[in-house]
Structure to design on (448 residues):
């Protein structure tokens, strides 16, 4: 969804639409219609999932050196991505951003401060959980931009521009959708290749 | 600008709530009301206090999530504006602000300034839809719709379901909301067919949810952030016969 797309709005909106509206409906629909084995609270998988969520909430509520709000980390992350992973990107700054975000992630889990309790409606806790996700996604966006050694659409890798400043495509090597799988060892790339039968992608030049 | 804020704090639905006074200074006039509350929350977190819970989503006046009664006015005194689109410059002569949740039995407070508006969802579920599949968009001139009907349907459909009409009504009636939903469907050919049954079901649902009846105070039209007209109530009453 990212990289080989058009303007930011379409990639961003697709992400939001899939994440907020489509996934909750389709997953729930699939689960409601399928015939699955009945599971109760004592099922190992259920217990594992519950414990994982509880651990994460405990970590957010009780960081060892709690001092900064979710907003503080959100703004720091935003600044890094704004500078390094905006419309124009380059290898050096992307690598630097990945390091910076990784540092920020460590700081986050040490210093995130969530006030209130975790047993009622707590928007600070909700936000902290989201920012933790955004940090992971932010690293991934930079990794994705880094592996795509071409300029395609509005996102420009500055190393891959024509003399006139236009995007230089590399359809031989990068005509694929990058789908990243979350694994214990980090993000794993799956290339979903694009085959254009009738209309081939060409260089777009506005001059 | 500096403000003294009296904000309704309530831990749970069935706990007693009360106003708590906060001071916030150096607020830029171009800060939105919700951004001002964000800043206050940042200060509360630093002081190890529980942040104030309030509803928001789009912050551009189209989603209907934000609420707040500010100095007695739902969405503040400024006309045709949601709280998220309200800027602190509007309050340059009002340094003391009272901020409350929507108050109605059918909108129980969940916490602080956030109320449960699922009663509105249940009213919609009782008939705020077209039950037959009308297919995809037909050829434009097959079924003629008068411009005035299309405009009125659109204006009624502009209701974002925020509940300000209920919050201001002395009867806590949801009549303006219900009539807008009934109107925007009844004015168009696909929705017209079921309009009698729909109006009956939705009004019945409104009453069983505990909302009061309309007694023509007409404050709802004044505070509606989308300017939903009272004509919708007239239209609904005609449909109900």
């Amino acid at each position: 969804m990212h990289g080989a797309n058009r303007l930011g709005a379409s990639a961003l909106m697709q992400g939001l639409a899939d994440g907020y509206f489509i996934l909750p409906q389709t997953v729930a629909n699939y689960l409601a219609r399928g015939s699955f084995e009945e599971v109760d609270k004592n099922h190992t998988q259920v217990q594992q999932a519950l414990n994982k969520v509880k651990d994460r909430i405990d970590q957010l509520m009780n960081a060892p050196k709690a001092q900064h709000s979710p907003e503080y980390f959100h703004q720091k992350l935003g600044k890094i991505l704004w500078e390094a992973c905006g419309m124009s990107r380059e290898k050096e700054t992307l690598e630097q951003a990945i390091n910076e975000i990784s540092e920020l992630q460590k700081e986050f889990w040490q210093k995130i401060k969530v006030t209130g309790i975790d047993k009622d409606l707590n928007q600070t806790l909700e936000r902290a959980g989201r920012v933790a996700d955004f940090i992971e996604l932010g690293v991934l966006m930079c990794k994705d931009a880094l592996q795509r050694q071409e300029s395609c659409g509005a996102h420009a890798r500055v190393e891959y521009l024509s003399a006139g400043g236009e995007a230089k495509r590399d359809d031989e090597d990068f005509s694929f959708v990058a789908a990243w799988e979350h694994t214990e060892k980090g993000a794993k790339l799956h290339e979903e290749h694009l085959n254009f039968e009738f209309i081939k992608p060409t260089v777009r030049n506005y001059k | 600008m500096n403000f003294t804020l009296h904000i309704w704090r309530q831990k749970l639905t069935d706990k007693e709530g009360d106003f708590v006074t906060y001071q916030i200074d150096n607020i830029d006039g171009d800060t939105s009301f919700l951004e001002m509350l964000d800043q206050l929350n940042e200060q509360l977190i630093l002081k190890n206090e529980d942040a104030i819970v309030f509803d928001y989503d789009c912050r551009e006046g189209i989603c209907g999530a934000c609420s707040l009664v500010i100095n007695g006015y739902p969405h503040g005194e400024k006309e045709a504006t949601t709280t998220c689109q309200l800027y602190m410059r509007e309050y340059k002569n009002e340094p003391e602000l009272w901020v409350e949740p929507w108050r109605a039995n059918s909108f129980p407070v969940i916490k602080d300034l956030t109320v449960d508006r699922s009663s509105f969802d249940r009213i919609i579920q009782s008939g705020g839809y077209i039950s037959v599949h009308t297919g995809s968009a037909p050829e434009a001139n097959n079924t003629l719709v008068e411009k005035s009907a299309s405009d009125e349907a659109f204006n009624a459909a502009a209701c974002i379901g925020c509940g300000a009409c209920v919050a201001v009504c002395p009867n806590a009636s949801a009549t303006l909301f219900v009539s807008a939903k009934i109107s925007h469907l009844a004015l168009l050919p696909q929705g017209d067919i079921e309009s009698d049954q729909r109006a009956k079901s939705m009004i019945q649902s409104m009453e069983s949810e505990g909302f009061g009846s309309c007694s023509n105070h007409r404050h709802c039209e004044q505070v509606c952030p989308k300017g939903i007209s009272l004509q919708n109530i007239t239209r609904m009453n005609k449909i109900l016969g």
User: Anything to note?
Assistant: Residues 65 and 111 of chain A are 5 Å apart (CA to CA). The two ends of chain A are 28 Å apart (CA to CA).
